[in-house]
Amino acid sequence: MNEHRPPPSNTARHAVSAGRVLVEALALHGVERVFCVPGESYLEVLDALHGQDQIELIVAKHEGAAANMAEADGKLTGRPGICMVTRGPGATHASIGVHIAQQDSTPMILFIGQIARGHRGREAFQEVDYQKMFGAIAKLVIEIDDEHRMGELMAKAFHAAVSDRPGPVVVALPEDMLTATTAMPACLATPVMPGAVGAGALQSVAVALTKAQRPLLVVGGSTWSDRGIADLRAFSDVWQLPVACAFRRQDIFDNNAPNFVGHMSLGMSTALQDMIKDADLVLSVGSRLGDIPTGGYALIEPPRALQTLILSHVDAAELGRVFQADLAIQAAPDAMASALSTLVPDAVPCWGEWTRRGRAAFEAFTARKVHGEPVAGVDLTEVMLHLNRALPADAVLANGAGNYSVWLHRYYRYRAPRTELASTCGAMGYGLPAAIAAALRLKSRTVVCVAGDGCFLMYPQELATAVQYGVTLIVLVVNNGMYGTIRMHQERHYPGRVSGTRLQGPDYVALAKAFGAYAERVTVTGDFAGAFDRARAAGGVGLIELATDPLQITPDKRLAYL
Fold this sequence. Notes:
Structural class: alpha/beta
Largest sheet: 6 strands, parallel
Helix content: 25-40%
Radius of gyration: 25 Å
Number of helices: 20
Number of strands: 20
Strand content: 15-25%
Shape: globular
């Protein structure tokens, strides 16, 4: 331990607490907002945030929600979302946000208060070894033992969060270290310029395209810029390539574009599955090609895919980890898209009909679903089709996990980048905190949270946070009185044995009104449009409970009984 290390010689700056250097580092790195639940273990940092006007402090009601807010903010900006929680229970609650950020490749920094340095190893009050706890799900875990290294290690944390494959960094802050003084200032992380795609690799892509008969462009990953997405669109248009988006990366490519063929997701259409299997070339830009977009690795099989596979990813460690690609290119999504946009075919590509068939299948799959029998309550298909008509292209939709999201991702069409906030790790409860982060970040835009009843009940108290900070958003609570996804799997594996999947909820309208939100309950499909208009007109926070048919477990499947 080095808490007694003498301070370095530095007479040019008045000594301040390490907690104040931390806040200086946040400001230096352009942080505008910190999400937190307060704790006595980092009071010095809270005090340093007092009275300054650059960084807004948002106090959530649960550490899990605060971490989800920070992760969503990182998704929207491409810069590290910032969360602060206290030691022990605060850290364990916030771990969900770290897991989401890790699986979603989102830049994020979680600061955790820690016990005093001299008490370590005694199982002191709320003591946790954060290296052991977060080592498997965070990019980097740092415990700052030396107040004089605060500026240095803060720069390291910011660098790690955004370099290579972005992800979460955990920084533990012993409380006595935070109050110790230092003359060492904050310093800025060294910017990393993205590398260019080599001419040889680009030529190999062009050659593979000229040999293909049935190519498919798959796009995914994080930290795309508007320019990168425009370059991607230009490349796909010139080559008339069919484009599919990886799981919950549906907003990377305009779903109304004539060459968009679908979303490689839970509930993927049979036609898209067939298209992936039948493709003779898969060009993947940004995506890790995990188990969900590959249908449990059945559509694109590791280690050696049946299709010619060109894999582009920002992280060299990802290339070759699962797939032995025919060509692997280490490049950030923007850099790869920029390089691809320079390629021009020598002749009109031969696969125009292939692309048109893929698009026609997508149009058929996302058309209004005609049910074999009447659907009781509110039909979610009609709700999503109405949102398509009513919402502007830049509206942000946030959701967590549950079968209700199958309707959203099938029928709603994302038309602009950074309009989809959804966790690829399938975390329930994500939607409402993410929507609050979006409403704080994008004050002039429409924000809608879509949540199942079970999903919403993970963090319903965050309605208080939304009202407290004056955000404008609408929450749609899809109420079918069950944990629908689990019930679906339960019925498949244990038919007739309903156990643990029924859900008793509160009066959602009364609950929302108690928090100060506008609220309505809708039981008939035809009443939704009016209720949605009234919620928008009310301003502030609005909640609409949608009473849906519990038997209609997906757009295509019904349960036989409750």
